[in-house]
């Protein structure tokens, strides 16, 4: 697991918390912030997944 994967999962978790707090407090702005954080976190995690896959392919070709 690389740093992009870890940071992506952490960002997704923060987003889920913000979304839940926004729903509980009826704050659409905080809900939206949570949704955006989750998307950004998923994107970063996906980027980390691609890096890991590329590293594995490079290792297999040796």
Molecular structure report:
There is one protein chain. The protein has 62 residues and is mainly α. The protein has one domain. Helix content is 89%, strand content 0%. It has two helices and no strands. α1 runs antiparallel to α2. The model has no long low-confidence stretch (mean pLDDT 96). This is CsbD family protein. Residues 1-62 are annotated as: Disordered. Belongs to the UPF0337 (CsbD) family. Residues 1-17, 24-62 have a biased composition (Basic and acidic residues).
Labels describing this entry:
2 helices; YjbJ_sf; mainly alpha; 62 residues
Summarize the structure.
With 62 residues, the protein is mainly alpha-helical. The protein has two helices and no strands.
């Amino acid at each position: 697991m690389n740093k992009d994967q870890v940071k992506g999962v952490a960002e997704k978790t923060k987003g889920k918390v913000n979304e839940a707090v926004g729903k509980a407090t009826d704050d659409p702005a905080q809900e939206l912030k949570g949704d955006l954080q989750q998307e950004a976190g998923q994107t970063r995690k996906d980027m980390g997944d691609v890096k890991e896959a590329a590293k594995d392919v490079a290792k297999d070709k040796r």
